[in-house]
Amino acid sequence: MRCTLIIAYNGTHFLGSQSQKESKNTVLGVLDAALKKLGIETKIVASGRTDRGVHATGQVCHIDVPPYWSNLEKLQTSINKIVAPSILIKKIKIVDESFHARYSAKKRVYRYIIKSSSSNPFEESFVTFLQDVDFATLQEKMKLFCGTYDFRFFMKSGSDVKSTTRIIYRAFAYRHKGYIILNFEANGFLRSQIRLMVGALLALSSEQIREQLECKKRYKIKPAPSNGLYLSKIKY
């Protein structure tokens, strides 16, 4: 029985989401250990990976559940008791056997959260604090990313991908209760692409961003901190 898990997690103390041989301290590593305690040996497949320190409110995984776990509500409660407090299974539902969390995904949505104020210890792990953000200029620059581009200059070095071309359907900024939210929706993202795009928004002019998008010139960009980034939704 194939099921999807809608997952939220606080990525602060995890070494990313993907399972690693060197450490069990990843989101999928912790989930895998929890499932094994419940007699489920299936491989967990996620819609994609998030880097160290990145959070999620809508990550999607699929697993194949043994028939004796037909009570999915009980399964959800049992998993949550083990993985709390840094991980939360928000929902489990049955899907078609052909469903694949990664390859069936059509669009991925990320948010980056900025607070234009002095930092405080209660939000330090969850937002990026920046002084004097020019919100109007930021809004205009965000529009530059919409479209189909070769994002090889917005990718962490050492990445192994067949194509660096991605389609960004929506990129916009808005204010919400004292926060600045940057929203990106695409068919997929390269490793560290969003953090490098946010870094470009904060450090480069519109013309410089255009040059880098068109692969005419690569500027030295510091990736935005990981703590402000959230995987918010996967669309199928």
Percentage of helical residues? Answer: 10-25%
According to CATH, the homologous superfamily of the largest domain is Pseudouridine synthase I, catalytic domain, C-terminal subdomain
The N- and C-terminal alpha carbons lie at a distance of 19 Å
Shape: globular
What is the CATH level 1 assignment of the largest domain? Alpha Beta
CATH architecture descriptor name of the largest domain: 2-Layer Sandwich
Record field, number of beta strands: 10
Q: In terms of per-residue confidence, which ranges show pLDDT below 50 for 5 or more consecutive residues?
A: none
Overall average pLDDT: 95
When the domains are counted, the total is 2
Q: Strand fraction band? A: 25-35%
Which characteristics define this entry?
236 residues; alpha+beta; Alpha-Beta Plaits; 2 domains; 10-stranded mixed β-sheet; 21% helix; 30% strand; globular
SSE topology:
Elements: E1 2-9, H1 27-37, E2 45-46, E3 55-64, H2 72-83, E4 87-94, E5 107-115, E6 128-129, H3 135-142, E7 147-150, E8 165-176, E9 179-186, H4 193-203, H5 206-213, E10 229-235
Parallel strand pairs: 3-10, 5-6
Antiparallel strand pairs: 1-3, 1-4, 2-3, 5-9, 5-10, 7-8, 8-9
Short description, anyone?
With about 240 residues, this protein is an alpha+beta fold. The protein has helices at about 25-35, 70-85, 135-140, 195-205, 205-215; strands spanning about 1-10, 45, 55-65, 85-95, 105-115, 130, 145-150, 165-175, 180-185, 230-235. It folds into two domains: about 1-95, Alpha-Beta Plaits; about 105-235, Alpha-Beta Plaits (2-Layer Sandwich).
